[in-house]
């Protein structure tokens, strides 16, 4: 393939967010759409998520990650999206110039009319959770282990301790057990599960793997390779409780302690980043503060279901194409969307009420702390309640969605701002 | 049995600088290192500073070596391609009470013959906007600087190899071969070697070699552990070296920029009886943080991306000058029992700074003992550093990739390290054969994701380039393999 | 036969209700908590527990040495170790297309094993 000097839309990342954005851009009038992917094949992180759970909403099927990805890769190819694989974006400028490093094509700079950032997340590291101890081989993030076990075909250990009850950690606990390893323990510093209950049942309970809440790693032991983990109980302030230490012999520590949106390129381009989400400030079309630079998927905030990532990608891609064709007048009147009571963050940060004329707008959020009781998820403009939805509970591990229906068009147009809150019923 | 003129025991900065100094002469030189790579001890886990030399107790060997070596760093860094920036350093007093602590330090600098300037609080704020606004004054030592400490080992050794020195890693000294009261060679874990000279640059274990030579049974090395944080480049940048006012035991916990661009915070100081235990502790981290925030209040623990610890070899040798009351000086002297053995022991701070002068001193000691040293014809002082993609301008990058397309494939995304660089290190004069060895040479895997993206790719490259199965690729030598078996084998073979 | 009371976490929806099940052997007498789907899940879980199983098999000639596969329907939980042992012995040859049936009626369960992705020949 030849790389052109100009593209209508350049998408960074070929995970579910990027694929959906590229498809939507093409279908909404963009002529040349290029997806840049650092791996040798498209699909992003889905390629290593070989477990089921993808597509339940969109396809009404319970698919493994690679299957879900394949459907979109095929569609992208069918509509004429171009892929530049095995290539890393070095820099994006404010005026949409994208510089790429590629073994095959060298260093190339292309000019895009619009850019969609879809770089996904990286994993939180041992340094960021400040794990004391030595630095032997055998301390890995769950995602790195997943890449080895599922894609490259290697087992990075025999006896595992997993820190963090996030979904990736629990999924890996089952995966490793399937392939003949022993998972000794899962430690979680919070008093509640970080991921989905279903994973707790089907990955830990099913295989007799013990989960200890309010526990963490006090020390990593071993010079060349991990030999043991010293686990310890903690109080509500995460302080270790003396006397509760337990040395668990193992050869591997997997860290599943959170995902962080990967926005280095965004930052360098001048995109403003929300310190709470660690992703860009976005409007309801996922456009960032820089006109023509959009973002989609986990790079904006950490999603729980890939189906919503696809939806976000479709929204961003469509908006990018419409911006280019002039169908969308760029930054129009937007109102701020604020995180109210019990809400840690809300995305999008601003919305354009006029967009309700074309369809519903989804507002997504995470609750600060678990509320294991029925709640209302409410959208208010000042004192006035615009809409609300009942939920049986609210947990930080599960994203909460509130749909603003088109019917709210007039009311929202009259509003100065919107506040989203989660309150007990 | 292979025979050399000189065998250097220890591939830390002192051993490597000595190898380079000796490579100038027509001598057959061997450097042995017990670990699987050079510079794995204190030499790569320190504050990365070339000290001005104002601070050691006057008239000690530490003071003398530091003062002699400091000016050498311009030419050495230039010739050997060692990243070095002569930024100067500040000792900062916070609050009125600390202002008085600067005077004795200024005085000491003067006695040591080092340039020291007094800076006002306002001036300090201008030079370093991030400094605590409660600053009351500072001392500036213009001759201090930042260096890449691992490059300070690798570069001279590569130059030494270029000039004929041999290097054997994974080779531990186990004893002297003495015939008729004379040393004729040494025993190692990989066989015996003949030699006339033995340079003991064995760091934390230099006392063992001293004792085996029959010297100074009272000499003992105790290791003091110092823990450090590395902070995210994109969150905080410093172009300065900031010291607090010193305490009785240490120069204090510093906050400083580095040649890699990261801010470094540390070290604390704790006694560590296990000479190889470089574990990071919770208490250490809390201690460091409290102190660092006093100098630079805007520093937040959220910026931490990596943590490490170094073990300093503190000796108990009294200063040779009996008039000086100091009990932890460098030992740079020939053995009193075994002719041909030169001990370089207790080399803690300012060891890195002093290394080029210590190396020179070894040459002088050999000459003093009657060794005739003939200059080697065609000795080449220059070592050309390998290209660092991330440090090149865009046109330079384009040219590099055009020459070798492996430089176009980025493997470490956070630090922008390419496959070309990794392959070059695996096949260089002092080759990288493990993940950590590549990390020390290229700074790969030290960024925000701490290697979680690059690790599988680097393991794959090492496997390919070394022609070994992926299950034999290690993090830091035998026993630290990453992978046990392939996914579908149930038992490891 | 003795009556047993036990707790069961329902996974039909993300709520994860804890069901209180009273049973005699495998006969469910009553289920407290949860909804209709939950009660159905409890009965199924106690008589014939099943899980979707995803794993991988070896493949030669493709870009990677492993091909991810999955069961076409939930598979009997007690036989999962047997299933994994069977899968461990499989070796495919690239190219393999998406949803290619790797094995039909595996272990006589009436359930197929399908390829989770395509893998071309390199």
Entry summary:
The complex is a heterotrimer of chains A (425), B (493) and C (122). In chain A, 21% of the residues lie in helices and 32% in strands. Chain A has 425 residues and is α/β, with parallel strands linked by helices.
Looking at the structure, what is the overall shape of chain B? globular
CATH architecture label name of the largest domain in chain C = Roll
Radius of gyration of chain C: 19 Å
Report the average pLDDT across residues of chain B: 93
The CATH topology name of the largest domain in chain C reads: CPE0013-like fold
Q: Counting H and I runs of at least 4 residues, what is the number of helices of chain C?
A: 2
Oligomer: heterotrimer
Kindly give the count of domains of chain C. 2
Helix content of chain B: 25-40%
Class per helix and strand makeup of chain B: alpha+beta
What Rg of chain B, in angstroms, do the CA atoms define? Answer: 23 Å
Distance between the termini of chain C: 61 Å
Count of runs of 4 or more consecutive helical residues of chain B: 14
Poorly predicted runs of chain C: none
| Morphology of chain C | elongated
CATH class of the largest domain in chain C: Alpha Beta
User: How many individual β-strands of chain B?
Assistant: 25
Strand content of chain C: 35-45%
List keywords for this structure.
heterotrimer; B: 493 residues; alpha+beta; nine-stranded mixed β-sheet; six-stranded mixed β-sheet; 14 helices; C: 122 residues; CPE0013-like fold; 2 domains; five-stranded mixed β-sheet; three-stranded antiparallel β-sheet; 17% helix; 38% strand; elongated
């Amino acid at each position: 393939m030849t790389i052109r000097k100009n593209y209508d839309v350049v998408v960074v990342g070929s995970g579910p967010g990027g694929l959906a954005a590229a498809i939507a851009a093409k279908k909404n009038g963009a002529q040349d759409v290029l997806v840049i992917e650092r791996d040798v094949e498209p699909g992003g992180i889905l390629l290593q998520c070989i477990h089921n759970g993808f597509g339940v909403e969109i396809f009404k099927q319970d698919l493994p990650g690679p299957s879900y990805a394949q459907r979109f890769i095929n569609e992208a190819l069918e509509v004429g999206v171009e892929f530049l694989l095995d290539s890393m974006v070095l820099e994006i400028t404010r005026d949409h110039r994208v510089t790429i490093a590629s073994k095959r094509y060298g260093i190339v700079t292309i000019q895009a009319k619009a850019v969609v950032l879809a770089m996904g997340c990286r994993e939180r590291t041992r340094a960021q959770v400040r794990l004391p101890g030595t630095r032997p081989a055998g301390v890995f993030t769950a995602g790195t282990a997943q890449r080895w076990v599922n894609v490259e075909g290697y087992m990075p250990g025999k006896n595992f301790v997993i820190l963090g009850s996030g979904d990736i950690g629990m999924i890996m606990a089952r995966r490793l057990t399937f392939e003949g390893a022993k998972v000794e323990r899962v430690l979680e510093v919070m008093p509640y599960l970080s991921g989905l209950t279903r994973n707790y049942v089907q990955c830990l309970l099913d295989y007799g793997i013990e989960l200890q809440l309010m526990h963490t790693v006090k020390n990593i032991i071993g010079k060349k390779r991990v030999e043991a983990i010293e686990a310890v109980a903690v109080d509500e302030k995460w302080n270790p409780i003396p006397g509760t230490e337990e040395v668990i012999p193992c050869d591997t520590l997997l860290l599943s302690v959170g995902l962080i949106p990967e926005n280095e390129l965004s930052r360098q381009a001048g995109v403003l980043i929300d310190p709470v989400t660690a992703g860009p400030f976005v409007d309801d079309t996922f456009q960032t503060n820089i006109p023509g630079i959009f973002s989609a998927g986990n790079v904006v905030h950490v999603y729980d279901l890939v189906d919503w990532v696809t939806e976000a990608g479709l929204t961003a891609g469509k908006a990018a194409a419409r911006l280019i064709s002039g169908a969308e007048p760029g930054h129009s009147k937007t109102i701020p969307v604020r995180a109210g009571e019990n809400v840690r963050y809300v995305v999008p940060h601003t919305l354009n009420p006029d967009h309700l004329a074309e369809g519903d707008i989804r507002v997504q959020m995470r609750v600060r702390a678990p509320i294991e009781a029925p709640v209302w998820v409410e959208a208010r403009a000042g004192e006035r309640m615009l809409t609300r939805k009942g939920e049986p509970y609210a947990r930080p591990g599960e994203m909460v969605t509130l749909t603003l229906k088109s019917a709210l068009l007039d009311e929202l147009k009259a509003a100065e701002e919107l506040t989203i809150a989660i309150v007990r019923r | 049995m292979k025979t050399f003129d000189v065998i250097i025991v220890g591939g830390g900065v002192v051993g490597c600088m000595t190898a380079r100094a000796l490579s100038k002469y027509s001598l057959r030189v061997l450097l042995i290192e017990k670990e699987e790579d050079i510079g794995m001890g204190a030499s790569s886990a320190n504050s990365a500073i070339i000290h001005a030399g104002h601070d050691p107790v006057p008239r000690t060997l530490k003071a003398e070596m530091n003062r002699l070596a400091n000016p050498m760093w311009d030419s050495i860094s230039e010739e050997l391609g060692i990243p070095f920036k002569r930024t100067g350093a500040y000792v900062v007093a916070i609050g009125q009470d600390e202002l008085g602590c600067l005077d004795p330090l200024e005085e000491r600098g003067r006695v040591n013959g080092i340039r020291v300037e007094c800076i006002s609080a306002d001036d300090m704020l201008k030079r370093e906007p991030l400094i605590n606004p409660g600053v009351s004054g500072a001392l500036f030592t213009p001759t201090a600087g930042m260096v890449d400490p691992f490059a300070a080992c690798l570069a001279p050794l590569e130059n030494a190899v270029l000039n004929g020195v041999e290097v054997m890693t994974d080779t531990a000294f186990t004893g002297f071969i003495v015939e008729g009261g004379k040393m004729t060679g040494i025993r190692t874990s990989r066989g015996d070697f003949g030699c006339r000279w033995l340079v003991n640059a064995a760091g934390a274990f230099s006392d063992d070699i001293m004792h085996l030579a029959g010297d100074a049974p009272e000499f003992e090395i105790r290791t003091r552990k110092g823990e450090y944080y590395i902070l995210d480049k994109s969150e905080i940048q410093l172009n300065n070296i900031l010291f607090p006012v010193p305490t009785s035991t240490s120069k204090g916990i510093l906050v400083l920029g580095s040649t890699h661009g990261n801010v470094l915070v540390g070290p604390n100081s704790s006694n560590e009886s296990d000479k190889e235990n470089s574990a990071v502790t919770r208490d250490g981290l809390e201690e460091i943080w409290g102190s660092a925030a006093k100098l630079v209040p805007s520093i937040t623990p959220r910026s931490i991306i990596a943590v490490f610890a170094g073990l300093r070899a503190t000796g108990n040798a009294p200063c040779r000058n009996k008039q000086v009351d100091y009990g932890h000086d460098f030992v740079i002297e020939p053995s009193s029992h075994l002719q041909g053995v030169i001990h370089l022991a207790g080399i803690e701070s300012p060891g890195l700074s002093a290394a080029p002068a210590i190396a020179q001193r070894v040459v002088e000691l050999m000459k003093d003992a009657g060794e005739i040293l003939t200059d080697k014809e065609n000795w080449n002082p220059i070592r050309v550093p390998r290209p660092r993609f991330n440090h090149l301008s865009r046109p330079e990058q384009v040219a590099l990739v055009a020459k070798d397309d492996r430089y176009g494939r980025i493997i470490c995304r956070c630090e922008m390290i390419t496959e070309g660089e990794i392959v070059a290190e695996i096949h260089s004069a002092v080759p990288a054969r493990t993940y950590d060895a590549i990390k020390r040479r290229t700074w790969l895997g030290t960024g925000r994701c701490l290697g979680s993206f690059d690790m599988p790719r680097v393991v794959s490259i090492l496997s390919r380039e070394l022609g070994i199965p992926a299950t034999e690729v290690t993090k830091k030598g035998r026993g630290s393999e990453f992978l046990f078996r392939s996914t579908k084998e149930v038992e490891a073979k | 036969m003795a009556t047993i009371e036990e707790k069961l976490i329902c996974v039909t929806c993300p709520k994860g209700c804890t069901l209180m099940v009273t049973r005699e052997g495998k006969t469910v007498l009553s289920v407290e908590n949860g909804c209709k789907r939950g009660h159905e899940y409890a009965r199924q879980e106690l008589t014939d527990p099943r899980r979707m199983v995803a794993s991988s098999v070896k493949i030669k000639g493709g870009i990677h040495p492993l091909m991810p596969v999955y069961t076409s329907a939930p598979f009997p939980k007690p036989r999962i170790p047997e299933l994994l042992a069977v899968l461990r012995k499989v070796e495919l040859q690239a190219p393999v297309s998406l949803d290619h049936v790797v094995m039909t009626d595996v272990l006589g369960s009436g359930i197929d094993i399908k390829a989770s992705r395509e893998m071309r020949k390199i």
